[in-house]
Q: What sequence folds into this?
């Protein structure tokens, strides 16, 4: 098979540059396009030069349609509104769409699911092997430890530039805990606490958010019971783990039938 041609949207972003580096070092994949916002300073520059891997002969453009027309897949770590638009273009072009963007509203998630009727989409709040494995362990721990005895709290820290909270990963881990308990996260999540909150509601899944410095992503799921606490944690030292996961997802998605898949599908970790 020929190399899979990938477009990176948000090519000048923190993840965009990491994605270009990951594609450059992956056998079977190549960068065929790079897209940035209209008016972004990086438009017109060589995508490889910007990402520090030397010239790739791919000029960053603000025209996604032209870039998608010559690609087999798109890697998208941008912003929710942009991702919804890209899902429509990717479906039209019949190419795989790997979505790492977090902070989508319920309505935006519905629009992405609608696009997945015609396109192969892999979407995950975290593309790393470690966090997806952690989510399986969290689901198992939540299933094993009785909700009447064990309180679940999800703690996360990210760099100062992050714009959404709780992180997509914290929500992914909270969802895994809710699944383990056989409940809906939305019915049980306590995302913010301030002032006189009263006692902790039974069965709540709590979230706490820290922001600062250059932290790539730290997550802990704490199951606090009578006389003992279980803590399951992940530390991301480098964005490369997300980028390599996204490239792996694109290669996995190539030629697969339309649908909305997750990293658990890609990694073969999906509960049966
Ligand atoms: P960033 O701000 O550094 O990069 C985003 C880039 O997208 C910017 O360069 C911006 O100009 C570009 N962009 C925005 N709208 C665009 C448009 N319409 N067309 C083209 N480009 C556009 O942010 P980041 O730290 O790289 O994170 C990006 C997203 O990825 C966030 O939602 C973040 O939470 C998420 N993220 C997900 C994972 C994961 O594994 N799923 C890991 C890390 C980050």
A:
């Amino acid at each position: 098979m020929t190399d899979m041609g990938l477009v990176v949207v948000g090519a000048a972003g923190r993840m965009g540059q990491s994605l270009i580096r990951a594609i450059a070092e992956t056998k079977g994949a190549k960068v065929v396009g790079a897209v940035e916002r209209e008016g972004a300073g990086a438009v017109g520059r060589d995508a490889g030069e910007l990402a520090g891997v030397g010239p790739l002969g791919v000029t960053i453009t603000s025209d996604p349609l032209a870039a998608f027309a010559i690609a087999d897949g798109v890697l998208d770590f941008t912003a929710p509104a942009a991702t919804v638009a890209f899902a429509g273009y990717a479906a039209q072009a019949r190419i795989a769409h790997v979505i790492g963007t977090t902070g989508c509203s319920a309505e935006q998630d519905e629009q992405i699911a609608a696009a997945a009727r015609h396109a192969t989409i892999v979407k995950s709040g975290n593309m790393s092997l470690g966090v997806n494995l952690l989510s399986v362990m969290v689901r198992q721990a939540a299933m094993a430890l009785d909700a009447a005895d064990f309180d679940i709290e999800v703690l996360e820290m990210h760099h100062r530039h992050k714009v959404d909270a709780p992180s997509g990963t914290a929500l992914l881990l909270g969802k895994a805990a809710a699944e383990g308990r056989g409940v809906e996260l939305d019915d049980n999540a306590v995302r913010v606490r301030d002032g006189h909150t009263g006692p902790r509601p039974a069965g709540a899944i709590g979230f706490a958010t820290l922001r600062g410095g250059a932290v790539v992503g730290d997550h802990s799921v704490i199951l606090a019971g009578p006389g003992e606490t279980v803590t399951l944690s992940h530390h991301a030292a480098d964005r490369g783990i997300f980028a390599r996961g996204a490239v792996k997802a694109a290669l996995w998605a190539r030629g697969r039938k339309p649908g909305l898949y997750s990293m658990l599908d890609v990694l073969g970790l999906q509960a049966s």
In short: The radius of gyration is 19 Å. The chain has a mean pLDDT of 97.
